[in-house]
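Run log // design_07
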């Protein structure tokens, strides 16, 4: 059984960023194989208080929701995130190998994206797009910003590992992984991923080495001067004349009005689309079904109290580990997480890696590996 669980740990790391369907399977199987570990687990009291506060707040938010059925199902989402954190903390034995597997798996997705664009692949089954290389690409149902938020983890991970690994052969492999993932990000044209990658790279530079910024700026500089569409897309990040940016600001304005009127406990989890139309501001010409921001998404549904419990726990965990991050692999994880939480300022997206990697930060295996 232990051999099976070790194999499944490797599978979990490798498939985590290839497709969300793998995460559901991996969550069920790895949790069932290693669930007994929780009997002897040492629980952080602050975590327990935060989770309890979120649970109580969630009950109040659901009870006051406009649509109870939507609220009840959506209220479970933060607790799936918490369970993935628990999986990362208690059920992964080798965090360093797990990170390497994650980068390799993400590179597979990046390679498929690159090949789909290069060969103009288009596979459709019964009306469902399996692979589309045109436009911003759609790979196994993952497109544009969703693709970008996954690929950025591969970029930051490959950057960090390129600095950490010792052998020239390994360095060559991670450099190739970096190029493939960077190419996939350019194809996705996700500006949120561009900003997130920049933030993660900057943090890696601070935490690890100036070589990080030298490598990424060189590669991005080459891409900017050789790919005109990427240059224009990157430049549009800073333009208020860009229609997408303008509409996002309008949605944020309307969302803030909604939050102001439902400040403490929100409109109910998953109820944004139901309530938001009455808060749409003049000049907003899109039918927003989400606030295009993870922070606003949670706060609008759970209220400011629920938001403080959820995001307070997340950033407390990250900040606590920044202060004692002597292990270079931990520094890579922190940079990936910061890249994610910067990206979701502009898009409301969910990934399994954002929770599992947070659990790895608190994984005691790091201490054991560093002593050995």
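design_07 sequence
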């Amino acid at each position: 059984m232990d051999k099976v669980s070790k194999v499944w740990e490797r599978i979990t790391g490798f498939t985590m960023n290839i497709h969300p369907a793998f995460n559901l399977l991996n969550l069920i199987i790895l949790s069932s194989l290693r669930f007994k570990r929780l009997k002897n687990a040492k629980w952080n009291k602050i975590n327990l208080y935060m989770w309890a506060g979120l649970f109580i707040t969630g009950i109040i938010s659901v009870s006051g929701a406009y649509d109870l059925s939507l609220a009840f199902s959506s209220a479970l989402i933060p607790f799936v995130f918490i369970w993935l954190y628990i999986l990362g903390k208690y059920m992964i034995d080798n965090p360093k190998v797990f990170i390497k597997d994650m980068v390799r798996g993400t590179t597979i997705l990046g390679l498929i994206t690159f090949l789909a664009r290069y060969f103009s692949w288009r596979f459709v089954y019964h009306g469902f797009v399996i692979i589309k290389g045109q436009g911003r690409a759609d790979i196994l149902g993952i497109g544009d910003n969703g693709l970008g938020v996954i690929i950025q983890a591969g970029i930051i991970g490959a950057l960090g590992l390129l600095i950490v690994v010792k052998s020239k052969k390994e360095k060559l492999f991670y450099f190739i992984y970096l190029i493939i993932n960077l190419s996939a990000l350019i194809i996705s044209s996700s500006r949120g991923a561009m900003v997130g990658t920049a933030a993660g790279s900057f943090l890696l530079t601070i935490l690890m080495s100036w070589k990080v910024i030298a490598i990424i700026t060189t590669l991005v500089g080459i891409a900017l001067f050789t790919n005109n569409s990427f240059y224009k897309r990157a430049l549009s990040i800073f333009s208020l004349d860009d229609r997408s940016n303008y509409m996002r600001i309008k949605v944020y304005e309307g969302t803030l009005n909604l939050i102001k009127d439902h400040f403490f406990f929100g409109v109910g989890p998953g109820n944004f689309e139901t309530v938001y139309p009455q808060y749409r501001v003049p000049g907003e010409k899109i039918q927003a079904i989400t606030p295009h921001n993870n922070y606003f998404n949670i706060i609008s549904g759970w209220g400011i109290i629920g938001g403080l419990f959820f995001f307070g726990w997340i950033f407390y965990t990250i900040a606590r580990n920044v202060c004692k991050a002597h292990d270079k692999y931990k520094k890579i994880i922190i940079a990936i997480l910061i890249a994610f939480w910067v990206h979701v300022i502009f898009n409301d997206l969910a990934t399994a890696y954002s929770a599992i990697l947070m659990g790895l930060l608190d994984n005691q295996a790091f201490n054991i590996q560093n002593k050995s």
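Residues 242 and 248 are 10 Å apart (CA to CA).
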